[in-house]
Amino acid sequence: MQQSVPETIDRLIDREQERFRRTHPRSFEDWRKGQAHFLYGGPSHWMRRWAGGFPVYAAEAKGAHIRDVDGNAYVDFALGDTGGMCGHAPEAVTEAAVRQLRRGTTMMLPTEDSLWVGQELSRRFGLPYWTLTTSATDANRGAIRIARMITGRPKVLVFSGCYHGGVEEAHVEIRDGKVGLRNMIHPNGVNHAAVSKVVEFNDVEALERALSDEDVACVLTEPLMTNFGMIPVADGFHAALREITRRTGTLLIIDETHTISSGPGGYTALHGLEPDMLVAGKAIAGGIPAGIFGTSQEVAERLWKIVPKVDPRVRQSAHLGIGGTLAGNALTVATMRAVLEHVLTPANFETMIANASLLAEDARHVIETHQLPWHVMQTGARAEIMFTPRPPKNGAEVIASRRGDLETLLHAFYMNEGILVTPFHTMFLMCPATSAEDVDRHTQVFSRFVDLVRDAGV
Ligand code: PMP
């Protein structure tokens, strides 16, 4: 449970929000105007979650830096919650996009860039067949639908605390021992217990029990959890997960949307995982909306038996029930190629991971110097500061220990000090343009935050 906010922290949040309001008058006014025409003030409801009390309105972004409409500058470690992991306006993506915009964006016809992209996805992630979608959410939905089609089973198993986008089956967590709704979101009239199973991450016995009924089409999981703080995977868990899913005829979908920060082929390639399907999105086309899912040879062959490749003379149903008129459009494919060829390259990953290591080491040093009961996690180019002494084992430990108050205070402080992190937890992502100076800027601001809370006796 989230603890009630101690008065001191509450006062500090007030102070930081007042400071934010004073230094962001134009964003404040824009946000006020936005209420008139957007359901939740901004074009996406996610844009309302910022700890300053309202979002900054972006004027422009380049590399790892953003400038807002009030002229404030930020080092951006949020990077659009991973959509901007290539850095803002990377040259290769911009050039590819402009070139393709002039030649037509969406024709529902393949372009030759797709041949290069398909080959590269197989090479990186190790699965032979790919489908492009317009988002990671859609890729997950597509993968789940195929899993249900070929297994004939209704349920999807996820781990408590997961997030896989707007996927109904994955909106669940364990609350009071039962299937509840993640972060207490609205159940939306759906009987989640009928379509979902949820167990704690790293819990092999619970997984074994849940899959033994053989009513689960697929397990959908990140290779380690990144959306509830960062929850590391226990030794042997992946081997057990693969063995149990195979034994029970359950498909394994690995969602690499965030963990692609591990390296060019994500955590899957780095650790030799063998998923039946793999999903990614967000950064994969450099910020142009896109998702991908790959399938194994076996999954593809089982699917082709149900929905054969089309013979145009026979007007058979060849519809997969997966949407996406704009999926795989020429613009997306062109920018995806640019990303894979020039941006998310092994050399750039080396720089990004080195900077994430630097940030994590520096933050650990600050934490240790002040003997604070906090810790720092890292997955490749991604790091996370958590207000607990040790990494959590599962979602239950996060629910029990999460310090929402300190997170809000830290995030509001960061924004006032020119640092952006994703508003949902304290996650830092590096892009190829992130520099050691940017990391150093964070270290200084984080040290000042520690001074602030210690002076206040928190
Ligand atoms: N999978 C994971 C692991 C994610 O973190 C997210 C979004 N945070 C998604 C899927 C969904 O991505 P999108 O909202 O871009 O569809």
Which tags fit this structure?
15 helices; 7-stranded mixed sheet; single chain; 4-stranded mixed sheet; 2 domains; Aspartate Aminotransferase, domain 2; 458 residues; binds 4'-deoxy-4'-aminopyridoxal-5'-phosphate; alpha/beta; globular
Low-confidence stretches: none
Largest sheet: spatial strand order: 4-12-11-10-9-5-8
How much helix is in the residues?
40-55%
What small molecules accompany the polymer chains?
4'-deoxy-4'-aminopyridoxal-5'-phosphate
Report on the biggest sheet: 7 strands, mixed
CATH architecture of the largest domain: 3-Layer(aba) Sandwich
The name CATH uses for the topology of the largest domain is Aspartate Aminotransferase, domain 2
The strand count comes to: 16
Summarize the structure.
Its cofactor is pyridoxal 5'-phosphate. This protein is an alpha/beta fold.
Can you give a write-up of this model?
- This protein has 458 residues and is an alpha/beta fold.
- The chain has 2 domains: 7-85 and 346-455, Aspartate Aminotransferase, domain 1 (Alpha-Beta Complex), CATH 3.90.1150.10; 91-343, 3-Layer(aba) Sandwich (Aspartate Aminotransferase, domain 2).
- It is 41% helix and 16% strand.
- The chain contains 15 helices and 16 strands.
- The chain has helices at residues 7-23, 25-34, 91-103, 113-125, 136-151, 192-195, 204-212, 237-247, 266-271, 297-306, 330-343, 346-369, 395-401, 404-416, 436-455, and strands at residues 58-62, 65-68, 73-76, 129-133, 155-159, 172-175, 178-181, 196-199, 216-221, 251-255, 277-281, 291-295, 375-379, 382-386, 419-420, 427-429.
- It has a 7-stranded mixed β-sheet, sandwiched between helices. It has a 4-stranded mixed β-sheet with strand order 1-2-3-15. A 3-stranded antiparallel β-sheet has the order 13-14-16, covered by helices on one side.
- The relative contact order is 0.17.
- The mean pLDDT is 96.
- The chain binds 4'-deoxy-4'-aminopyridoxal-5'-phosphate.
- Residues 81, 135-137, 140, 163-165, 222, 227, 255, 257-258, 281-282 line the site of 4'-deoxy-4'-aminopyridoxal-5'-phosphate.
